[in-house]
Amino acid sequence: MSDGIGLLIFIALGILVVTLTITQTRNPYTLREMPAFQRLRRAIGLAVEDGKRMHVSLGRGIILSENFGSALIGLGALKRLTNVALISDRPPIATCGEGSLMILAQNSLRTASRQLGLAPENLPQKALLSGTTPFSYAIGSQMELRDQRVAVDLLIGHFGSEAALISDASHQQGNLSIAGSDDLSAQAIFAAGATYPLLGEEVFAAVAYMDGEPIQRASLQAQDLARWIVIGFLLIASVVKLVGL
Questions:
Q1: Band of pLDDT at residue 45, cut at 50, 70 and 90
Q2: Domain segments of the chain: what residues?
Q3: Which pTM does this prediction carry?
Q4: Cα Rg for the chain, rounded, in angstroms?
């Protein structure tokens, strides 16, 4: 079993290296259009001009658990938003429902500030542990996005039914909300309540759409190529089974 997993990891890394080489030597991999991120780019500029904040809600993912992957995507999105919006007098804020996420979010803010040559002393106050239980986290996030003159809400991470409270507060404020989660109940809530819901794997492509670095685009291309390989294998296996070989 472990040998099979190791082989799959080796194949995946090989596909990633090949696609990264191709994207660097030829035309870059073209991503399909997603209105959510087209609107986000415009909304960032408008928020900076209007002196309003962007709010990133990172959910309740726990490090080393199976639900932490979406939280990592949220952290990547926070870093990229900070790189753009930190030049304004109202930098982004982040709310978390788990202590380790708060520490990682604070570190992302510090890193972005150092890259821009800004003093990072007050930035840890912008990454908050708004609650340690699902609904206290949601209520704390509601208070922050109402009190901090927030114009854009980006909700990416592991959420449950408490996502409805955060999404509703964003809607009442008239904010642009882009939301996605690895949890099916949260996806259903976001599909009904977010301005632009991210469904399924769209959550894990968010950083590539926001950043556009070759490694991010290559990872998406590697996933697409791996899907075609799996589809081809299933078709061949089906034909072999039908002809009785």
A1: confident
A2: 30-211, 213-245
A3: 0.78
A4: 20
